[in-house]
Amino acid sequence: MNREPAMTDVARLAGVSHQTVSRVLNGHPNVREETRLRVRAAIAQLGYRPNRAARTLATGRSQLIGVVAQNSTLFGPSSLLAAFELAAAAQGFVVSVRRVKVLDRDSITAAVEHHREQRAAGIVVIAPTAAADEALAEVPTDTPLVTVDGDPERAGAALVTVDQEAGARLAVRHLLEAGHETVWHVSGPADWFDAAGRMRGWRRTLEEAGAEAPPVSPADWSAASGYRAGLMLARMPEVTAVFAANDHLALGILRAMYERGRSVPGDVSVVGFDDVPEAGYFIPPLTTVRPDFDTVAAQALSLLLSGISGEENGTARRVVTPTLVERDSVGSPTR
Fold it and tell me: Model pTM?
């Protein structure tokens, strides 16, 4: 073959249509694994390279995916973003991230419009707050859009999220099964869907167990606010178990308990959420809930590629269940 191999050559060799070859190249989920392998083998045999420029001209869209995210170093959103960039790169897409200072309507709308002007093939918005989620209603329907960590109750938008309530249930059940009569909760910010879901799971699990739900200790996501909440809880001898809305809060609580002479897990058991890389090196190593950020990213990309391919998936929901990682910060109550 003197000329460069084309998609039709790949299709002929693999015994499939050129539309199927296109679906494989775009990472479309609705392709049988046997077919996918046959197409990949034909691509390798022919040395076929997709003509990105031609595809852009033909479709009017680039191989660019736009992402809107808060300008933040918080572990959850940062991990989601990193996982999504890797997943998209593996499918031949370039990711352009537009970071916003605040997750409000104007900032989100402007960031989405920026990606549309860049002719992004699709857009992912990491929208963990109510204000960010509300702005998505204004995105034109001709733009493939997937929300990550948005409002699980909002209709009319493709969504991928961690099951926050299920994660909280794992944490609280683990503490109750260790013998604690109830579990205190240090929450995240009230306007975050993650924090609301974790609080809901905490409260419902206690209600189902017939345990009284103590007052919530409101905080932000920082170790400093966990420390302040921990100082208050450490003064209360009835506190024997605490579920922190994330691991940084848990770290602050551990420090406060240490300073006030209350041992963990001897006097107080603590469970966090997120499984940050340092969690196993806290003193003691922290029992926590681990969200599967790689799966969230893969599901978000899958939904977005379906939308780019023209499939109707505007109300699709993908919910990823987290797991409990047991370490040394939970024990039976001593009194």
Answer: 0.80
